[in-house]
Amino acid sequence: MAKNKIEQIKEYGQSIWIDYLDRQMIESGELKRMVEEEGIRGVTSNPKTFCKAITSQDNYDDDIRMAADAGQSIQDIYEALIFKDIRNACDILLPVYELTDRMDGYVSLELPPALARDTAATVKEAKRYFRAIDRPNVLIKIPGTKEGIPAIRQAIAAGVNVNVTLLFSLGSYEQAAQAYIKGLEERVDNGEPIDKIASVASFFLSRINVKVDERLDQRLRTIGTENLSEEARLQEFKGKVAIANAKLAYQTFQKLFLESDRWDALAEQGAHVQRVLWASTSTKNPDYSDVMYVDELIGPYTINTLPPKSIEAVLDHAHPSPNQVEEGVEEAQKLINSLSASDIQIDLTQVMAELIEEGIQKFAEPHDELMRSLEAKTKELAAV
After folding, report:
1. Which residues contact 206 (CB under 8 A, 6 or more apart)?
2. Which domains does the chain have, with CATH numbers?
3. Which residues are catalytic?
4. H or E, element range at 143
5. Per-residue pLDDT tens for 195-243?
6. I need a surface site. Which of 186, 190, 357, 365 has the fewest CB within 10 A?
């Protein structure tokens, strides 16, 4: 039987994870089918999909009703529901985890977004979540904020698997990678094992292009169509910055994990590299290819987490080729450098700072909506 596109991508060193999880796909066997038949090798979850599932599906109702009857708080009910789904998903992915020697087979769970600016609270909850779920293949999401970076190091040192989220800039990515390395070194210094600790660094893509394209469009509106050469130059940057940025991030990954004596010392004790995970990979602009964040960023030690529709698109018409993430690196660097030119005038540092703040808010809104929806449904079911 011919390999599907996801299996072809896997041969080139990249794992495809699904950015979606609910109880229906677990209980119906759909997740297991996707793992066994399509080659899905991991899961990232988020409050938005949980909110939709809890409010629209009735397979949470019995658990909600029993928890309400027992007098549990909304927070306790939320955790009971979500932790159950995460545990079951981890169990489905466990064979992948074991088959790949703990490189794949993970399920990610997000901490409450309100903790994003609180280092101590993030570490405390990350430890608690990790213990409560009690699965070796769960990853706890910690954002790559200024306060999140030390939390990542402390969580890793405590033996917690971490998915570093909301990475946009190269500087933030390097800090996240260094935090992982330092956390492992602390464990070594304390005589603790590091061979079962895992981390991925989630680099967000489409949001970068959306933000940069908005600035380019604003410039284009300002100059009008009189200066055609300037207009053409501005158009050249549209839809390209995120992928260029990602390719440069991969170069940093190689230096830190594949070309480093410091990392080699940890690898000798069983450490696994912190793989780069391409996130926010559904194309927002219909003028762009719906698989461009896949086709152009395939490479060893990478992960691409995709929503269901993007997975369907990949299976249908992706064009997998090996090591695309290292193609055009010099051009990527030139493109990034050119953003600050007088005729472009895009401050990428400012763009990235805005994106991290907006990212926290975009996590907080669906989480808050989930809690409100859960409270309403709890009252509804308690009244029956």
Report:
1. 242, 280, 281, 282, 283, 284, 293
2. 5-206+245-327+360-382 (3.20.20.70)
3. 141
4. strand 138-143
5. 999 999 999 999 999 999 999 998 888 776 556 677 888 888 999 999 9
6. 190
